[in-house]
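Sanity check

After download, print the first record. It should look like this:
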Amino acid sequence: MSVNSKENVRHVEKASDITSIKNSLAERLTYAVGKDPITATERDWFFTAAYVVRDHLIDRWMDTMRSYYDNDAKRVYYFSMEFLMGRSLMNSLYNLELEQPARKSLQDLGVSLEKLRDVEYDAALGNGGLGRLAACFLDSMATLDLPGYGYGIRYEYGMFQQHIEHGRQVEHPDNWLRYGNPWEFSRPEVLYQVKFHGHVTQYTDEKGVAHFQWMDTDDVMAMAHDTPIPGYGTHTVNNMRLWAAKSSRDFDLGYFNQGDYIKSVEDKDRSENLSKVLYPNDSTQMGHELRLKQQYFFTCASLQDILYRYNKDHDNYDALPDKVAIQLNDTHPAISIAELMRVLVDLNQLPWEKAWDITVRTFSYTNHTLMPEALETWPVEMFESILPRHLQIIYEINQRFLNDVRHQFPGDTDILRRMSIISETGGKRIRMAHLAIVGSHKVNGVAAIHTRLMKQTIFADFDRFYPGKIVNMTNGITPRRWLNQSNPPLAELISSKIGKGWLKDLSQLKKLIPLADDATFCKQFAEIKRANKARLAKLIKEKHGLEVNIDSLFDVQIKRIHEYKRQLLNVLHIVTLYNRIRRGEECVPRTVIFGGKAAPGYAVAKLIIKLINDVADTVNNDPQVKGLLKVVFIPNYDVTKAEFIVPAADLSEQISTAGTEASGTGNMKLSLNGALTIGTLDGANVEIGEEVGDDNIFIFGLTADEVASLQAKGYQPWDYYNTNADLREVLNMIGSGFFSPSEPNRFKPILDNLLHRGDQYLLLADYASYIACQNRVEAAYKNQTQWVKKAVLNVANMGKFSSDRTIAQYAKEIWDVKPNIEENWGGRNTQ
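Expected structure tokens:
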């Protein structure tokens, strides 16, 4: 038999019957964990189960990686500063279709799978929608058999663990790696040098060609840690490679021998800080610099790794765009455009024009914000200090780009100013979004309205200059995590009616539409929702000591705390309801649930959290309310908590100011689990409304065009305050200290923002429409038969919002990458 034969290369598939799994558990407990069943703790059993599942992943993982080499497959590299993966045990079991045999095997050994699930920490590698989107995309790439890799940073402490103390957010270190991570494989042999600071020297060779050398740098080493990412119902297991910072030397022996132990390890500590925390507080100069260093650190290491892999089979870079597609998830990795140019021009002496053509055809960029103030920029002085050669390259890119713009728009100096990668306003700054657009062959928005507004507003000039470059890729979520895993009873009910094909083709949920009129199905659907609400109510009681009525309307807003997401508008409605109840007016019982973190340096967002908790303290303890209204803030919102909250939600709050939310994916998760959306015509809400129908969604507020028009005319928030008695009463209560009697002026900054600083996100303009829409919600909830029908139709019409559809669209329209199907596997033994 040939050494290159498929049979020689492929591993024997691990047996997945109950007896084999029980044997594997016993073996792993003894030889990997070093424990006896008598003394084993739940954590020991968790690691045992994880190692058994990992064994099932490894053979497929090796086969997958080998097949990419064998077929010289074009590969997609997804660059993201965040990967909000959540827990891996249950996800891997479901994707490997081992959940039931593993559950039974553990049960026979006297171990509960649920308890093991709860032992696992959420991987603290992300914070919000950006990171969760990246995680869903990795799942879908593997499920669709696409050669896909994730590249990011292995944060040792994540962002932070959020505690609520006296109603305020307090940040604690999130030491998620305290007990180790059984899913990752450390690769100390995969180590790359990353340079910072230093200076650039220039010389001209005998042919008159200029060359540049980046010298006298401060160096950090990037060490790889790999995590296998399994697809569902396929043999494909892809890789997520995260980088940890290591010092280029352990410590200075000279200082050590002199007795200065702190100084001896100072360089090591400073270097390794790069991968300590997710998004350092960049309100300080040091935090700002650290964030830029993090971005360059992971992109530089990732590019070295990609080119090392590419060079195994290619002796020049001509084919790089045909074999490598790099997707930039927001502007955080945009510095990689300048870095690839440095590698091609400085280190490999390619002519600038050729190097630029290769670079542009390799990169594509996803934009995630329409707000100009949220578009990332860096001071030129900081860049010059930290990345001096990259600053030179960016200036060269900009000069050549502006020459092309000047030729297309002769005499228009203003367009040069608007499109320049270097902003001259308020000091010279590098516009990373402009660099990403200029250096990519495709730029995409993440919802239809978002992409339209990109073309009409912030990137209108680029759309004129590059017609067809900006395209839409509406976001999606993986149904494996967000229905099959998080809501097993509903997943089982759906599969019992239409089969399991929806797990890989979510459009099959359309088959549920006739069942919206089936009384038996709707009764089963409603019972599952109520059981999920009971499960969440139990968690709220156990963790927060608050009893909530499971027959009340569960009104949920779970997302990053930010002014544009308008948690504050939700609070205004809560206070309005509170006042109605105190006046004796009839109200549908309601439980309002919040979750989300505020950035450590974002004072207003943190004050909104305090307001939510102060309002909750008043409402929940007022005997006049009689349990008709409860408010709860669930601390440290993460993927695991979302898996409790999302299946229990009746109402999904998606209430951002129209034109500010790029897409949102929480709206998709909640709707897929049978929550009805209340929202503005913003982000993916627009497309969700188109799919589920106007009768099955609650839309309110100004449109994006109306927002722009109102702001252009001169928005006057006082007009709304003076003409709406309910609004005036609510604001006066908040501003006068009704909810903060010990500190009456506590929320004055919030009132000042709304009334004296222009109400940037138009809460007062949308208040009346929001209240009227919430009244429609109450009326609809009273008719439970119709409400359940609407919920079923939401689930049935969510097929468009699968990340599988999104990734298939990326693969076809941007990456030009094909599935690497198992039938074509086999070949040489290369990793």
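If your output differs, re-run the checksum step. Summary of this record's structure: Residues 562 and 605 are 6 Å apart (CA to CA).
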